Amino acid sequence: MSSGETPDPLDRLRGEIARCPYHDFLRVEAVEADAETGVVVVRLPNRPEFRLAPDSDAFHGGILAALVDVTGHAAVACAIGRVAPTVDLRIDFLAMARGEALTATGRPLKVGRSIARADVEVRNAEGALVAAGRGTFSTR
Length: 140
Fold this sequence. Notes:
The structure is a single chain. The model has no long low-confidence stretch (mean pLDDT 94). The chain has a six-stranded antiparallel sheet with strand order 1-2-4-5-6-3. A hairpin with a 6-residue loop joins strand 1 (29-33) and strand 2 (40-45). It has three helices and six strands; from the N terminus they run H-H-E-E-H-E-E-E-E. The chain has a single domain, classed as Thiol Ester Dehydrase, Chain A. The protein has helices at 9-18, 21-26, 61-80; strands spanning 29-33, 40-45, 86-93, 101-111, 115-124, 129-138. Helix 1 (9-18) packs across helix 3 (61-80). The two termini are 27 Å apart.
């Protein structure tokens, strides 16, 4: 790729995910990225360390919060082409998050010179909405 070419959006998403060792710990997977809309989709497989209790397949709420943060950051960072540190994060837990994996979709709402906002929806394997969040990220 020459310096004038725009990187593939999915490659850019993979790069943003690979940038942080914490993302490696989570094992977040890049699924989809749309250059026109800025929408990114990531998948988080369930692991014993993520569960609410040893005998449960339910994700701990802190893992959902991490997924919202990673996905919102990735949506903004892909849009601006660099790291976008989290300034604020809020999450609504809408249903128990259970199953083998969760999928999160992030959408940049507004990307400004100093601040960006992104909305994130988290769904279970059946497509049910289990959490929604909004992040504010620094673009400086």
